Amino acid sequence: MRSIDILIAEDQHLVRGALKALLELEEDLQVVGEAASAAEALALLQRQSVDVLVSDIEMPGSSGLALAEEVRRRWPGCRLVIVTTFNRRGYVRRALDLGVDAFLLKDAPSEQLADAIRRTVAGRRVIDPELMLDALGDRDPLTDRERQALLLAAKGYNTAHIAERLCLSEGTVRNYLSEAISKLGAHNRIDAARIARQRGWLY
Predict the structure, then answer these.
(1) Domain 144-198 maps to which CATH number in 3.40.1110.10, 1.10.10.10, 3.40.1190.20, 3.30.70.360?
(2) InterPro entries recorded for this chain (predicted)?
(3) Which of 7, 29, 57, 150 has the most Cβ atoms closer than 10 angstroms to its Cβ?
(4) What are the pLDDT digits (tens) for 33-50?
(5) C-alpha separations of 144 from 62, 64, 95, 189 in Å
């Protein structure tokens, strides 16, 4: 029986090592690559094909969800398994929208992760029912542009720099930020970013 080749993208070295060790206890699973960031994962995928990408969400640079979106576009045959510490509605909904094949919490039993990987390779989707129901209860109100502007604001960029990064006018950026603040019931752009991040809508 051919083994299932897996790439792990996880910025915490100890967690990445533990995931690798647990998965390689299974006879049919083989970890063929490890990455500490989305950029490293993409570079590895350009050199080696894998069956399954197992990725964290919160990593330096691009998030695991942004990585999943890029992998889905460039390597549509690669199965996407997200593992995260954070049970946030926005994360699950975004993962569903991207067509992620499995979404699990890191405290799930290791055999559950191994089983999820096998099921995704067989063409099935694996998402915890409670996470699914929770995700359906709270929709992300932000547009893509509002989210982009808010994300840059959270990183400390002022309106002029945000406008330059997004190739927009400063007035348009102010409008996007104002809309985001209003939708989230926030006091200012930083408060809006905090609320959006807590709900998993900023990634």
Answers:
(1) 1.10.10.10
(2) CheY-like_superfamily, Sig_transdc_resp-reg_C-effctor, Sig_transdc_resp-reg_receiver, Tscrpt_reg_LuxR_C, WalR-like
(3) 150
(4) 999 999 999 999 999 999
(5) 15, 17, 15, 16
pLDDT tens, position by position, 147-199 = 999 989 988 899 999 999 999 999 999 999 988 888 888 888 988 888 888 77
Rounding to the nearest 10 degrees, give the CA dihedral for residues 43, 44, 46, 50: -150
β-bridge mates for residue 105, sequence order = 84
- The pTM of this model reads 0.66
Lowest-confidence region among 1-5, 8-12, 158-162, 178-182: 1-5
The CB-based long-range contact list for 150-158 (8 Å cut-off, 24+ gap) reads 150/176, 150/177, 150/180, 150/189, 150/192, 150/193, 150/196, 150/202, 151/193, 151/202, 153/177, 153/189, 153/190, 153/192, 153/193, 154/189, 154/190, 154/193, 154/194, 154/197, 154/202
- Using CA atoms, how far apart are residues 27 and 6, in angstroms rounded to an integer? 13
Which tokens sit at 139? 């929709």
Indicate the DSSP class of residue 172: H
pLDDT in the model for residue 130: 59
Q: Does domain 4-135 have CATH number 3.40.50.2300?
A: yes
Tell me the residue type at 110: S
CA dihedral for 144, 146, 152, 155, sign (positive or negative): negative
